[in-house]
Design a protein that fits this description.
The chain is about 70% helix and about 5% strand. The protein contains 16 helices and six strands. A two-stranded antiparallel sheet has the order 1-2. Strands 3-4 form a two-stranded antiparallel ribbon. Helix 1 packs antiparallel against helix 2 and helix 1 runs antiparallel to helix 5. The radius of gyration is 22 Å and the shape is globular. The two termini are about 35 Å apart. It is a multi-pass membrane protein.
Length: about 475
């Protein structure tokens, strides 16, 4: 019997579609560019104008305010980005447009002027808005309904994000802090050009995913014209509730790029055994390092937990992740007390905090992406993914406001408040888990469910 050559989009590598790895490397380089710029953002703004490596000379308060607005807009722009994909271009073409805009934005940011700084940020906001929600939705579209590999596929994709997030602060951070801020921004731009090149080259592996749902196609027209069922409406409700949790989660977590970044530079003893001083921006890579090294461990834990018959719904994991992340701020409270006593705090407090933040993120973030692809109606897939990233952006804005508040309230009070309040919120969600799971109507169950109006519902099947 002759061997049948599979089409490129049907080929697999290590048990997953080859398209997953195209999206993996595209996102890895996109995140390299974003986190490289993010590591330098507040440090560049507060750098003295008279130094040999001059910045804008802003106050901490002003830098944190702009950081909050910028990171919010980066992710809120995912809503129009998702809408463009759903209505006009499809996910695949919108990602292509987003990558091109990001290449332009990061290249402009490398220029040395105040005008180019704002112009570069503007193009990055537009680019992330087009790319971020749609590339995540495309990952879900690579898998057929009820494919058990979906969650693992998102973990692999998430590894790509964090390999880029690990390398960027070290490389871009070192170049930016020690040589020239704009060289660091330029290195981030090179990363984005690599990402766009990978995506363009890999189109043959993505022919079946991310295409526009068009009224010209009879089946697509039926999807677009069919009104939402009550099950789909309930699932949208639980997604909106999960988005509130996402806002709160990132409002605390994103102190990393703002308040904790400035704390590392201004109040942490970064002397490494008297040999050299570690650049503050390097600490931005600690989170990604822990993700790369611990993702498999955390994923294996949840798999074993589920096989033991214990609660393992996505909402439960998000709530547990919030509690673990919140407890990490207890280490920052200890760092603040040490600073008050000694005039500086040890590096290990930051590392311990990032460790718990990472474990919390691994519990909450990858599963939330997969959760959306299971619950979101197909005709609204990209815009709902955009709403998720917009929730992340709102969390970033709240993070900036919290960071600003620390300048008057005190860092110990802010760190301790987050540790206590966010832990209580996570515990309350766990207490309310049963009614929240009912709204999902078995979307995460292994077997098909029958809805209360007698209609058969196959979980994620209608949403892929």
């Amino acid at each position: 019997m002759a061997l049948v050559e599979k089409a490129p989009h049907e080929k697999e590598l290590f048990g997953h579609p080859v398209g997953l790895y195209i999206l993996f490397f595209t996102e890895m380089w996109e995140r390299f560019s974003y986190y490289g710029m993010r590591a330098l953002f507040t440090l560049f703004l507060v750098a003295e104008t008279t130094s040999s490596n001059a910045g804008f000379g802003w106050s901490n308060d002003d830098a944190l305010a702009l950081y909050g607005w910028y990171t919010m807009l980066v992710y809120v722009s995912s809503i129009p980005g998702g809408w463009i994909a759903d209505r006009f271009l499809g996910q695949k073409k919108t990602v292509m447009v987003g990558g091109a805009l990001l290449c332009i934005g990061h290249a402009i940011l490398a220029m040395n002027s105040e005008t180019s700084f704002y112009a570069g940020c503007f193009f990055i906001i537009l680019g992330v808005g087009c790319l971020k929600p749609n590339i995540s939705s495309m990952v879900g579209g690579l898998y057929k309904p009820k494919d058990e590999r979906r969650d693992l596929g998102f973990y692999i994709f998430y590894m790509g994000i964090n390999i880029g997030g690990f390398l960027a602060p070290i490389l871009c951070g070192y170049v930016g802090e020690n040589i020239n801020w704009h060289y660091g921004f330029g290195l981030a731009a090179i990363g984005m050009f690599f990402g766009q090149a990978v995506y363009v080259w890999g189109q043959k592996y993505l022919t079946h995913v991310g295409n526009l749902i068009s009224r010209k196609n009879v089946e697509d027209r039926e999807i677009l014209d069919r009104p939402l069922s009550h099950i789909e409406k309930d699932r949208i409700k639980v997604l909106l509730i999960s988005f509130l949790l996402i806002i709160l989660f990132w409002a605390a977590f994103e102190q990393a790029g703002g308040l904790m970044n400035l704390y590392a530079m201004q109040k942490t003893d970064r002397n490494f055994f008297g040999l050299f001083e570690i650049p503050a921006s390097v600490f931005q890579s600690v989170n990604s390092f822990f993700i790369v090294t611990l993702a498999t461990v955390v994923g294996a834990f949840w798999l074993k937990w589920r096989k033991a018959g214990k609660e393992s719904s996505s909402i439960f994991k998000i709530a547990v992740g919030m509690v673990i992340m919140a407890l990490g701020f207890g280490f920052m409270s200890a760092a603040s007390l040490q600073y008050e006593a000694n005039g500086s705090s040890a590096m290990y407090w930051l590392i311990f905090a990032y460790l718990l933040h990472t474990i919390g993120e691994l519990c909450a973030s990858p599963v939330s992406l997969s959760y959306i692809t299971k619950l979101a109606p197909l005709k609204y897939a990209s815009i709902i993914m955009g709403m998720y990233w917009a929730a992340t952006g709102l969390g970033n804005k709240v993070a900036g406001l919290i960071g600003q508040a620390s300048q008057s309230l005190g860092e110990f009070e802010i760190f301790t408040g987050i540790a206590v309040i966010w832990s209580i919120i996570g515990i309350l969600v766990i207490i309310m888990l049963k009614p929240l799971k009912r709204l999902a109507h078995g979307a995460e169950d292994d077997e098909a469910k029958i809805s209360d109006d007698g209609q058969e519902n196959f979980g994620i099947e209608e949403h892929v």
